[in-house]
UniProtKB/TrEMBL annotation:
It comes from the Archaea. The lineage of its organism: Archaea, Thermoproteota, Thermoprotei, Thermoproteales, Thermoproteaceae. This is DUF1922 domain-containing protein.
Amino acid sequence: MRYAAVVCPRCARASAARADARRHQCPYCGTVFQIDQAAVIAVGSAREVREAVVRYNSNFLKPGWEPRR
Ligand SMILES: [Zn+2]
């Protein structure tokens, strides 16, 4: 099973989706979006994709970032 790290078009957080899925629901804001219309930052094993997601989302912990609602 291959996975893809995709960036939510609404809240800009990354999450892991199955690479063969067409749609994905963001676990942070609940938005459902088409994977082929979203930015894919990594593709690979579950572990590789999880690490890419953590690395990407760690940017949101920097001072000055505020979530959009
Ligand atoms: Zn989202």
